[in-house]
Amino acid sequence: MTQYAxxxxxxxxxxxxxxxxxxxxxxCQSDPDSPTATSASPEAGTRLDGPAPAESGQPHLHAGExxxxxxxxxxxxxxxxHALRYATLDDTSWAAPRTAAxxxxxxxxxxxxxxxxxxxxxxxxxxxxxxxxxxxLAYAVQITQTDGAGTWRSAVxxxxxxxxxxxxxxxxxxxxDDRLLAVWLDGRTMAxxxxxGGEMTLRGGVLDATGTVEQRALLDDRTCECCPTTAxxxxxxxxxxxxDRSADEVRNIRLVRFDGQSWSDPAVLHDDxxxxxxxxxxxxxxxxxxxxxxxxxxxxxxxxxxxxVAFSADxxxxxxxxxxxxxxxxxxxxxxxxxxxxxxxxxxxxxSAADAPALRVRAVATDGASRPAVPMATLxxxxxxxxxxxxxxxxxxLYAAWTHPEEGVQVGRLRTNxxxxxxxxYSSSESLIPPMVRRRNGPCIDAxxxxxxxxxxxxxxxxRAETMYPARRPSRAVRPSPGVPNWYSSPPPRLTRxxxxxxxxxxxGLSSTSSKSSAVPAFSMSSWRPPxxxxxxxxxxxxxxxxxx
Length: 549
What we know:
Layout: E1 3-4, E2 23-25, E3 39-41, E4 46-48, E5 57-63, E6 69-76, E7 82-90, E8 93-94, E9 98-103, E10 107-108, E11 115-118, E12 124-131, E13 139-145, E14 167-175, E15 179-186, E16 200-207, E17 213-223, E18 230-233, E19 238-243, E20 253-258, E21 267-270, E22 285-289, E23 292-299, E24 306-312, E25 323-327, E26 332-340, E27 343-351, E28 357-365, E29 369-370, E30 374-378, E31 390-394, E32 397-404, E33 408-415, E34 425-426, H1 435-440, H2 457-468, H3 502-508
């Protein structure tokens, strides 16, 4: 008999899922996920007619190197039977759906989503879950692949423990020599224990074209029990991200790498310090372009929900400080894709301007710059019925898929230039943003700092001083005449005051103070010096030269 997830709640209001008719451009404010937006973007997301029926769910998206969008989903076929179906998208038209697998003993769950992955050789691979006993938490991973003629082979299990325990949250990656790399959560040490007793582990293996499993390995012996995993290919390795679980219940995101021979030791992406006595069902997301990697994840240290993104330029060995993408109201369930030009798009479940659940998307650059978030779709609910929304990019469009509790799998499309609307802002992360870039972009408050109207009086006075006497360099070397003040080397006295708040110091480019600390080092504008003058023929330009008399 098919095992089901708990019954899904009904939508908050009838009418189905409505896409936002107008994308809202949030200003530079303290809460990027705040519903207090006042400006609107002319770009609009569109809802595509999908190939899945109203009873469908668990969608998964993948964009191939040729731009083809692949979508898989689960739908019922008869009583107590399900099928993993898939179709490809050409602009706005879907090809006829096909079936990868079907059966009557599947484990169907809103969070543990089956998936399909095209391989470079033209073959396909897919994974789904099958119940292995009367215990609702006893299920196994099933991986099936097509042969050279396109026929689906019998499914195999990548794990060989034979225990009636949890196995799932699979990530698949194409691997050299027409092989397949699989990573999954493995609960074999929970055998004979009630509930979630024992330790959930992370394991991996490599499958050849016939389904033979090689190089099985234990990657981490204690992980979060039910947070999805994610994996990407860098130039020479595989990078896997997952949510860890420490002895004192701190659940950070960890990373492991595979070079084809061995796995690295787990490394913490960032120490969020989020302690929670239970699985949040919120896994990370990775996107890679060569050795450039973006990692997005949900966290809530101190009970404050937020969505972060961090960047790596060396294949995931080192990441910069996290950039806050959304804070305050996000539900999480993130995804991330590269947009090019050093930018990524991050998606998450948050709220719209009308305080309604929404699938939101925001573009963030590697230097911390971002545009206001836009609601790609307004949802009837942000409950489990929405599932795990997925995001991919193909050409000038972003495509997202999610589940509506009554209408099944939904697909939306958004032009990437919609994410360029609104004022450019910088995050308060510890990433090094060139000071002149911050000055050039004007008084834009960082994403986690206070809005301009909430600045302290001392900061407001500094803002007024910066407006009256902006920090800038001369267009050419100027040698001051005797008795004539040179404001470039000696700013007015009112600008020699020490800054009183870290956000203003960051904005003016005068301090790289960490966002984790409220202390601001003393700084005086009088310490600034212009660049050395360029070589000249000895000609001295008078400060008043060219002025009408």
